Amino acid sequence: MPVLVDHMARPDPARGKDDPNLQKMLELLSRGNFWVMLSLGEKTSKAGPPWDDVIPIARAYIEAAPDRCVWASDWPHPVSVVQPPNDADLLELFYRYAPDAEERHRILVNNPARLFGFEA
User: Fold this and answer.
1) Active-site residue, 12 included
2) What Rg value do the Cα atoms of the chain yield, rounded?
3) Mean pLDDT for the stretch of residues 24-49
4) So what's the pLDDT on residue 81?
């Protein structure tokens, strides 16, 4: 059964590769049935805009399981206590997670189609 973990498993970017949430998510991805949603980078970030500190986390997931990553903006940002970010800025962040066009197509089109059972 596929399991989708939202919000990049909420790792702490300040802890880097030693973060337990990051390590656990990487372990789960190695099982083959776990997926990760590359979302909420703006709230996960400790550095703030443009959220550079979450890019290594997203890259670690993409490199570990390129066929089991999906992306979302978290729109409409239902639990924001401050002004939500511009979703165009979040899309730009995604482009920094996945600078390769083929990789972006996989994450935005092919992977969700396979996970949710619809045609790409």
Assistant:
1) no
2) 14
3) 96
4) 84
Distance CA 74, CA 77 (A): 5
Q: Please tell me the distance from the alpha carbon of residue 76 to that of residue 9, in angstroms, as a whole number.
A: 19
120 pLDDT higher than 70: no
- For the chain, the residue count is 120
Q: For the chain, which residues make up each domain, given as ranges?
A: 3-116
Quick check: 105 pLDDT over 60?
A: yes
Work out the average pLDDT over 31-57: 96
Fold type of domain 3-116: TIM Barrel (3.20.20)
Which of 12, 53, 74, 100 is the catalytic position? 74
Element (H, E) at 3: strand 3-5
User: Look-up: residue for tokens 């337990």?
Assistant: 20
